[in-house]
């Protein structure tokens, strides 16, 4: 086989043979294999009943010798026993290290706790014999020293699972009630339509009224009844949800309809429509006659509409701006007397220096 090519999955024939009684699944299709978390050696259910029914016994697989009990055997969920073993170890460790995030002061402390738990699981799954022994001792010591907290967290977890089951059950029941209400409404609507048709036919046969008028009146009656039933169903649903004391949660935010997302506006809502002029689609100008007929001016995505918009904006950009009124409306801040005196002294000193310099520089 070439390097990099995918290897085919080998079907090991020994996986279908019991290592104790050598029963073959090919000859007995109903053969069922069981494993025990103590050693994860699989054997058929017949051997389990025969060997472990009377009490604990040693594993019959050669070179194992671990004491097994019948209640510890179960059917493997995964095809790979290594994965099955890791899942069982994670369940066993998770039942002991069951701290919650709200028990830690910071998220960093909780993440460090989860990292320690993962390191412990890695030692139990992939570690050497010494590492597995140390991990088992650490797991046992933690269980003995934190028995109260472990039991409390276990009960809290069971309560959460129970609440989740109740919530799912209530949601399923509410969905079923809604479906039944819809079916009842459809059935009542069909009966009303059939009754209305009979009434219309009777009125058309027994009276001389206008047929269109009779039909319109019948349709109005049907619409009123359907809207009344819908309003009654919505009111009953809202009242039923408000009166259920077992599923009412306090402190929840009120549900609000999601706001429809508008298209992205790069100008942040600023209205750029000109108010002093109306931009036309085309302008007659002798300077633009050549540009309109020359294809070179259309290269690179250039548009005459952009030129029109820019030219009109520049032409009208100064209208409505009166600088004299803006300056006259401003009030200049009064400078302090000390600042004015200091400025006058500096100005006079500078003037004296300039005159003295001119006198020295003037050779005539």
TrEMBL record:
Pfam families with a match to the protein in the record: MAT1, zf-C3HC4_5
Query: Where in this protein does the record put region Disordered?
Result: 232-254
Q: Which processes are annotated in GO (biological process)?
A: nucleotide-excision repair; regulation of transcription by RNA polymerase II
What stretch or stretches form a coiled coil here? Answer: 125-204
State its location(s). Nucleus
The alphabetical list of record keywords is: Coiled coil, Metal-binding, Nucleus, Zinc, Zinc-finger
According to the UniProt record, one GO cellular component term is: transcription factor TFIIK complex
The record's GO molecular-function terms, alphabetically, read:
cyclin-dependent protein serine/threonine kinase activator activity; zinc ion binding
> Which InterPro entries does this entry report, sorted A to Z?
MAT1/Tfb3, MAT1_centre, Znf_RING, Znf_RING/FYVE/PHD, Znf_RING_CS
Q: Does the keyword Chaperone apply?
A: no
Where is the RING-type domain positioned along the sequence? 18-61
Cytoplasm is among the record's keywords = no
Xref: Gene3D superfamilies: Zinc/RING finger domain, C3HC4 (zinc finger)
Q: Which domain of life is it from?
A: Eukaryota
Q: What is this protein called?
A: RNA polymerase II transcription factor B subunit 3
| Species, as recorded | Hyaloscypha bicolor E
């Amino acid at each position: 086989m070439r390097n990099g090519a995918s290897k085919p999955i080998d079907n090991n024939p020994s996986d279908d043979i019991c290592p104790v009684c050598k029963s073959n699944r090919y000859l007995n299709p109903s053969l069922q294999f069981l494993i025990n978390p103590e050693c994860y050696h699989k054997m058929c259910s017949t051997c389990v009943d025969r060997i472990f029914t009377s009490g604990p016994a040693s594993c019959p697989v050669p070179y194992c010798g671990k004491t097994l009990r019948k209640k510890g055997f179960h059917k493997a969920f995964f095809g790979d026993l290594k994965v099955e073993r890791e899942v069982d170890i994670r369940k066993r460790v998770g039942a002991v290290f069951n701290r919650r995030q709200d028990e830690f002061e910071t998220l960093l402390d909780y993440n460090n706790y989860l990292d320690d738990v993962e390191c412990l699981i890695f030692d139990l799954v992939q570690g050497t014999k010494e590492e597995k022994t140390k991990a088992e001792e650490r797991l046992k010591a933690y269980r003995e020293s934190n028995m109260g907290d472990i039991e409390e967290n276990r009960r809290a977890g069971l309560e959460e699972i129970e609440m989740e089951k109740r919530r799912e059950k209530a949601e399923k029941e509410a969905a079923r009630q809604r479906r039944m209400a819809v079916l009842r409404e459809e059935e009542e609507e069909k009966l009303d339509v059939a009754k209305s048709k009979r009434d219309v036919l009777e009125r058309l046969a027994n009276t001389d009224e206008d047929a269109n008028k009779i039909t319109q009146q019948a349709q109005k009656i049907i619409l009123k009844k359907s809207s009344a039933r819908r309003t009654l169903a919505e009111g009953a649903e809202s009242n039923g949800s408000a009166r259920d004391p077992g599923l009412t949660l306090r402190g929840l935010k009120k549900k609000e309809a999601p706001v429809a997302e508008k298209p992205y506006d790069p100008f942040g809502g600023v209205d750029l429509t000109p108010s002093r002029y109306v931009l036309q689609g085309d302008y007659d100008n002798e300077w633009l006659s050549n540009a309109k007929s020359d294809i070179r001016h259309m290269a690179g995505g250039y548009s005459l509409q952009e030129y029109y918009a820019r030219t009109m904006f520049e032409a009208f950009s100064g209208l409505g701006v009166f600088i004299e009124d803006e300056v006259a409306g401003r009030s200049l801040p009064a400078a302090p007397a000390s600042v004015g005196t200091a400025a006058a002294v500096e100005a006079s000193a500078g003037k004296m220096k300039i005159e003295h310099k001119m006198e020295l520089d003037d050779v005539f």
